[in-house]
Write a structure and sequence with these properties.
By secondary structure, the protein is mostly helical. The protein contains 5 helices and no strands. The protein has a single domain, classed as Cytochrome c-like domain (Cytochrome Bc1 Complex, Chain D, domain 2). Helix 2 packs across helix 5 and helix 4 packs across helix 5. It is elongated. Bound molecules: heme C. The site of heme C has 18 residues, from helix 2, helix 3 and helix 4. One of its GO terms (molecular function) is metal ion binding.
């Protein structure tokens, strides 16, 4: 009985964590951005070439005004041109942390 109670507490804690916005690691987000996003977006101040008509990550960061939730929900349900990237929740959290660090 005690074991069951413990298991229930652990699993509800795990659910609580899964629901909270993941903190995200900006360094990991930068690596993901350089790999998956740099083909279209200028993802860092060091990057010189990209599609001229696509917003840079700095501009996106500026525009978002620190609203991590809407960035995360955009990336969870991405724009059609990047539909097949298929980011995990953790990757989304890392990317949001990275983009937000550019402000
Ligand atoms: C194939 C090109 C392409 C790739 C790859 C790409 N994007 Fe985009 N992205 C665009 C275009 C074009 C737009 C603007 C049109 C739109 O919103 O649908 C855009 C818009 C965005 C926006 C919204 C900007 C706004 O208007 O507020 C975000 C955030 C974003 N991209 C993040 C990313 C991230 C993160 C990645 C990498 C995981 C990525 N994009 C990869 C082409 C791309």
């Amino acid at each position: 009985m005690h074991r069951l109670g413990f298991a229930l507490i652990v699993s509800s804690l795990a659910l609580g964590v899964a629901h909270a916005q993941p903190k995200g690691d900006p360094a990991a987000g930068k690596r993901i951005a350089e790999r998956w996003c740099a083909g279209c977006h200028i993802v860092s101040p060091q990057q010189r070439t990209g599609s001229a008509d696509v917003l840079t990550f700095e501009a996106i960061a500026e525009k978002s005004g620190g609203d991590r939730d809407s960035l995360a929900s955009f990336l969870t349900d991405p724009h059609p041109v990047m539909a097949d990237i298929g980011l995990t929740r953790r990757e989304v959290g890392d990317l949001v942390a990275y983009i937000d660090s550019l402000r």
